[in-house]
Amino acid sequence: MTPTSENDLAEAILGARGALRLRGGGTRSIGLSEGTLLETGGITGVTLYEPGALTLVARAGTPLAEVEAALDAENQRLAFEVPDLRGLLGTQGASTLGGIVAANASGPRRIASGACRDFLLGVRFVDGAGRVVSNGGRVMKNVTGYDLVKLMAGSHGTLGVLTEVSFKVLPKPEAAATLVLHGLTESEAVAAMAAALGSPYDVTGAAHDPGARQTLLRIEGFARSVAYRLGQLRALFPGRETSEDTDPDAVAALWAGVRDVAPLQGRVGDVWRISCKPSDAPELAARLRAEALLYDWGGGLVWALLPEGTDARARLGTFAGHATRVRGTGSAPAFHPDPAPVAALAEGLRRRFDPRGVLNPGLMA
C-alpha cells in the first residue's frame, strides 16, 4: 500500500486486519520483515519554507535530497547531519523526512548541535486507530501533557505514521577545518576527544578510527574564528603528531565518512551500534572483540562489526547504555531491552496510540 494523502493513510490503517510493516524510503529498516507493507513515500512535498524564520515544513514522504536542495539554495541546512546508511546496510532508495524522524537519525554534529528531535517543531501523524493527530507548531515552546513531537522521534513507527514534520533549520557555516591526531590508542583517543570537547573552541565533531589510528576533531564557523580556534586546539596536544585540513570539500568528505560509518562498509558481519558513556567506550570495545570499530560523539557512540550471528550484548554484559543491532540476524532482539519501569511506560504508550497493535508490532517491545 502506498497512500498519497493523509486521509488515504488514515483509511489504510483503520482498515488494516493485521500487522503493518512501515517503510519510508527503505534505507534504514531495522529488524522487521513481517506484515503488510505500508509505504509513506507517496505523501510528499515541501508545504512551507521561510528562510528568514529558519523554518521548514514538509510532508513525511518528502525525499531528504529535495529538502537539502531547497535549503542549500538559501545557504541553510539541517544541523543534525543526517546519516546515509545505505552503504552500511546494503539498502537502496532515498531517505525521507518521516523515516529520519522515526529513527531520530543524527550524525557527528549531535554532540554540539543536538539530535534530530531537538530541531523538530511539530508533527502530524496517523495513530494505530486511524486517528489524525497534530502536535507542536512552527516555533519552539513548552507545553503540558505529552510532548508528542519528541515522543515520535525515535519511535520507529510504533506509535503512529508521520504525515508532516516541521523543522528549525540553521545557516551553513562559512568555514570548517579538521585537526587530525595520529597514532593514538583508543584510550588516548577518548581522552583527547574529551579534552577537545571540554575546551572553549566549539568542537562540532569528535571521532576516532582505530583502523586508521586517526582521531578527528572538527571546528566550524566564521573563517577567522575557525583559523584561530584550530591553532588553539592544536596547542592542547603538544608532542602529538597532528595534521589539519581546511579544504571545504575534503572536510565535508571526511566527516561524511564518519557520518555514514564508512570504515565498516562492504565488510561481512553484523553491525552493532553501542551508546555508552564516553569514558567506558575503550573497555566496552575490548569486551566486544570486534573485527572493526568506529568511535563517534567523543566515544559516546561506538559502531562495531562482529561475526555473523554474534550477540553484542552477551559480550558486553551489564553496562550503562544500550546496544542496537542495525545489520544482521540472530535470536536477540534488534533493540536493547528496556528496564522494567521504562518498558511498562513504553507498553502503555503503545496501547494508547496503537490499541490494536498493528504498527510495526514487536519491533521495539
UniProtKB/TrEMBL annotation:
<dbReference type="InterPro" id="IPR016169">
    <property type="entry name" value="FAD-bd_PCMH_sub2"/>
</dbReference>
<dbReference type="Pfam" id="PF01565">
    <property type="entry name" value="FAD_binding_4"/>
</dbReference>
<feature type="domain" description="FAD-binding PCMH-type">
    <location>
        <begin position="1"/>
        <end position="172"/>
    </location>
</feature>
<dbReference type="InterPro" id="IPR016164">
    <property type="entry name" value="FAD-linked_Oxase-like_C"/>
</dbReference>
<keyword id="KW-0274">FAD</keyword>
<keyword id="KW-0285">Flavoprotein</keyword>
<dbReference type="InterPro" id="IPR036318">
    <property type="entry name" value="FAD-bd_PCMH-like_sf"/>
</dbReference>
<dbReference type="InterPro" id="IPR006094">
    <property type="entry name" value="Oxid_FAD_bind_N"/>
</dbReference>
<protein>
    <submittedName>
        <fullName>FAD-binding protein</fullName>
    </submittedName>
</protein>
<dbReference type="InterPro" id="IPR016166">
    <property type="entry name" value="FAD-bd_PCMH"/>
</dbReference>
